């Protein structure tokens, strides 16, 4: 079995090297892996760092900045694995946790999300984390589900399933669309608790309040569609 790891990258010169090194050194019993990094037209030193990994990582570059969702869709298109997992380019998540998701991944559980358990550290900006939780509650109400955490990074899918969906979102609202499209297909999303160390805006976090409102609009639009 092959696991495709899709890394959406935008201005992550401080962390991308460590993230890719962790992914390259990661060994998962029973799985071959391919790493695909999609650079969403970074303007810092990220491009030069990615070049250092060109012999071990498939590097795809957007000609202009299009958003996280667009980068992930590009990555899905280039992937050749049996399963696909999303990895952010920062250090908020530990790739060693892949195993926890893969342990419950199966034909009966073709979609597995992590449910973030926040480490109680100093200077956490809870607004963004709780905003994601609020949007998850909205989805639960409108689509009669019991999800804990929709705006989480680690999402594991059957490649056949995820490639069959025609996504329209390009930004962070992609997190909502991908979840809703899976729910509409009657597929249960399995969730696994994983520790999470969020970073602050000053440390390079890209999501903003406006993305929350765009996400809410996306949820409502998809609920009104047949």
Can you put this structure into words, describing what you see?
The protein contains eight helices and seven strands; from the N terminus they run βαβαβαβαβαβααβα. The protein has helices at 16-25, 46-51, 68-78, 98-102, 126-143, 159-162, 174-184, 209-224, and strands at residues 2-9, 32-39, 58-61, 83-88, 111-118, 155-158, 190-196. The longest helix has 18 residues, at 126-143. With 226 residues, it is α/β, with parallel strands linked by helices. It has a single domain (2-224), classed as Spore Coat Polysaccharide Biosynthesis Protein SpsA, Chain A. The mean pLDDT is 90. It is globular and about 45 Å long. α5 runs parallel beside α7 (174-184) and α5 (126-143) packs parallel to α8.
In short:
This protein has 226 residues and is an alpha/beta fold. The protein is built from 8 helices and 7 strands, in the order βαβαβαβαβαβααβα.
Sketch the topology as an H/E string, one letter per element: EHEHEHEHEHEHHEH
Number of helices: 8
CATH C-level = Alpha Beta
What's the rounded overall pLDDT mean?
90
Shape verdict: globular
> Percent helix among the residues?
25-40%
Low-pLDDT stretches are none
Total number of beta strands: 7
CATH topology call = Spore Coat Polysaccharide Biosynthesis Protein SpsA, Chain A
- Proportion of strand residues: 15-25%
